[in-house]
Design brief:
The structure holds two protein chains of two kinds. In chain A, strands 5-4-3-2-1-9-8-7-6 form a nine-stranded parallel sheet. Chain A has twelve helices and nine strands. The chains are: A alpha/beta, B alpha/beta.
């Protein structure tokens, strides 16, 4: 396993900061643009990256991320092509943790997925439609490749399930800000600090809140409840989606400026 | 298969061989386990089963006849019996299991039903259950299917169901299931997802099969009464595969009975316009289950095609994948054109207008009847009636020279 999550979170802790982690879909709107977008996120202060590989039937995603996946697929994005983008990003940024968010059918296609992801510099893989009950072979393949398997803590998890997830998830713990699918239209609910305490006591790696995080106050509320960071997906992707007009060069400049401002604003909320 | 075999070493429930499972976001797992438990308790509860059977009889009109075709097989050595699920209230076999699941939903204290629909038959069945049990009901339907099945959209609305058009993906059944799953991830506390087929995550493949099992149980008794012997083969169309599992279930342990699942070959299996999941797909994970899936080399789900909306699905129930893998059932393809021919022939020869879906099963039985060198006894599951398809079929009949 890489030590990137551990180093990043302990470094932030020393500074008294939380992590801000933006999510974007690889290959959206196109391969070259995708690489430039990720660079912008890193340069603007993202502490780690969460990246999607587009899938035709993303049942855990709301309309913004679905549409993003469709755009990427329409432009010919493949899992291998997406990982090749990350290999380039890794070349430029050797220390930033990079996590993948994927669906099971992309992973089981071959034995090659986890090793290829590892070789591309990926630190963790979260498979959205693989719950702990079905996780054993996926965890094994991730570990064999030196990748951290990440699991989601849903709001309806029992204490027993919280402890199970705490033991299974590596790198970080993905704590759902609310029920439902991804999307910024429905805001996160402040996590119960009792649940976060239970996870931490059970030895869970750093806790990051996702789903419904679109504004700095969501980041602050998550950290206040005891989380170590926050992920913002749909709000980030919505900025990409807003700049897809004809004049691509101009639009890319505007998109990157807006993404930079968004990341800086969200990141500032992680500071005391 | 390798990947699920590692899981099934620890868990055997919910798998058929290596197929099936519960591949859903973590948030849906407690709800699926609750459903599994409620179903296992209910099926042992005499009060539940007697209410279910009572409604099947008095409300849905069971048992349905097993009708011997008088004219259709003349000139062949075969006899074809039709299991008349088309005569069931609602117009298709879907009503059977919808009543069962609605009773389960009520038992679990749920107040709202959601469902997906392709041809609209499952949507109509869910709508009638929603009305009967006074539950708020929402049906997701691909906008492509809403166009080709307009009468069923109206029926659902008439019974007080909200029909939500799905504009994502291929705007068909697959996408309607995606939307229903997304709804459920937020609404599980008060909502039951009334999945319409034997696909999807555990426990749906088992629940839906058990509530549809009545089709085969009746057919078996009826054929023994009429002919004094078991049939040589049972034919059923397979989209997700619920009518097929329903009629197959009681024949699986009768090795002399061939089980024939008929998939939609669309424009032909040599084209990419078909929905022949088992014949042309490979195992993968779609809608919560490991089963055969139409997909590209990267694992993206492919769009299926069939003239019949109810078979237009790139996945298939896990138990069908299993029956295929052990060779217990045989899966074959019937094209749009062949299904239309069977649709017309049954209408003209017997005065029965079959659903386009069921016409696929009939077409295969007619093929086998034509080729039979010795007397053969066949049962075809006539899973639904064709009234819903009239508008869609009209241009083919008028212009197609049938």
């Amino acid at each position: 396993m890489s030590q990137r999550y551990e180093k990043t979170f302990s470094g932030l802790k020393k500074k008294g900061e939380g992590a801000f982690i933006p999510f974007v879909m690889l290959g959206d709107p196109g391969m070259e643009e995708s690489e430039a977008i990720i660079e912008t996120l890193v340069e603007s202060g993202a502490d780690a990256l969460e990246l999607g590989i587009p899938f035709s039937d993303p049942v855990a995603d709301g309309p913004v991320i679905q549409t993003s996946a469709n755009r990427a697929l329409a432009r010919g994005a493949t899992p291998e092509g997406c990982l090749d983008i990350l290999a380039k990003v890794r070349g430029k940024y050797p220390d930033i943790p990079m996590g993948l968010l994927v669906y099971a059918n992309l992973v089981i296609g071959g034995e090659r997925f986890y090793p290829y992801a590892a070789a591309s510099g990926v630190d963790s893989v979260l498979v959205a439609d693989v719950p702990t009950l079905m996780a054993a072979p996926f965890v094994q393949r991730a570990r064999d490749a030196g990748i951290d398997p990440v699991f989601i803590v849903p709001p309806n998890a029992s204490d027993e399930k919280l402890r199970e997830i705490a033991a299974l998830t590596k790198g970080y713990t993905y704590f759902l800000g609310r029920a439902g699918v991804t999307g910024a239209d429905l805001e996160m609910k402040v996590p119960l600090s009792s649940k976060i305490t239970l996870l931490k006591d059970a030895g869970a790696p750093p806790i990051v809140v996702g789903f419904g995080i679109s504004r700095p106050e969501h980041v602050r509320a998550s950290l206040k409840a005891g989380a170590d960071g926050a992920i913002s997906g749909s709000a980030t992707v919505a900025i990409v989606a807003a700049h897809l007009k004809d004049n691509r060069k101009m639009e890319m400049i505007k998109m990157r400026a807006e993404l930079a401002a968004f990341v800086k604003n969200m990141k500032s909320a992680t500071r005391p | 298969m390798e990947i699920t075999q590692e899981i099934t070493q620890g868990i055997t429930r919910g798998f058929f061989g290596g197929f099936g499972g519960m591949f859903v976001p973590e948030i849906l797992v407690p709800t699926l386990l609750e459903l599994d438990k409620a179903f296992e308790e209910a099926r042992k509860d005499p009060q539940f089963t007697s209410e279910f059977e009572g409604l099947l009889k008095e409300y849905a009109g069971r048992e349905t006849p097993l009708y011997r075709c008088r004219n259709l097989t003349s000139g062949t050595k075969a006899t074809i019996y039709l299991k008349r699920e088309d005569l069931l209230h609602g117009g298709a076999h879907k009503t059977n299991q919808v009543i069962g699941q609605a009773l389960l939903a009520r038992r679990m204290g749920k107040t709202r039903l959601i469902a997906e629909t392709g041809a609209g038959q499952h949507g109509v069945a869910t709508a009638l259950a929603g009305a009967l049990f006074k539950m708020k009901t929402r049906v997701y339907m691909g906008s492509k299917d809403m166009e080709r099945q307009a009468p069923n959209v109206f029926r659902m609305k008439l019974m007080g169901t909200e029909v939500v058009p799905v504009e994502t993906g291929s705007r068909g059944l697959k996408d309607a299931i995606n939307e229903a799953l997304r709804d459920w991830a937020a609404s599980y506390e008060n909502t039951h997802y009334l999945l319409g087929t034997v696909a999807g995550p555990h426990p749906f493949p088992t629940i839906v099969r058990e509530f549809q099992r009545v089709i085969g149980r009746e057919a078996k008794r009826q054929i023994l009464e009429a002919e004094g012997r078991l049939p040589d083969a049972v034919f059923a169309c397979v989209g997700g595969g619920s009518n097929a599992m329903g009629i197959f279930a009681d024949f699986i342990d009768e090795p002399s009975v061939k089980l024939i699942g008929v998939e939609p070959a669309g424009h032909g299996l040599h084209t990419d316009k078909h929905g022949a999941t088992i014949e042309k797909g490979r195992p993968g994970i779609l809608h919560g289950s490991y089963s055969y899936v139409l997909q590209d080399e990267n694992g993206q789900i492919r769009e299926s095609h069939s003239l019949s909306a109810g078979l237009d699905y790139p996945g298939v129930g896990a138990q069908h994948s299993y029956l295929h893998s052990i060779g217990r059932a045989r899966y074959v393809g019937i094209t749009d054109r062949e299904a239309l021919d069977a649709f017309t022939r049954l209408s003209r020869e017997e005065g029965i207008i079959p659903a386009l879906e069921s016409s696929h099963a009939l077409a295969q039985a007619l093929k086998d009847a034509r080729d039979a060198a010795e007397p053969r006894l066949y049962i075809v599951n006539l899973s639904g009636r064709g009234d819903k398809d009239i508008e869609q079929v009209m241009p083919y009949i008028d212009g197609g020279g049938l």
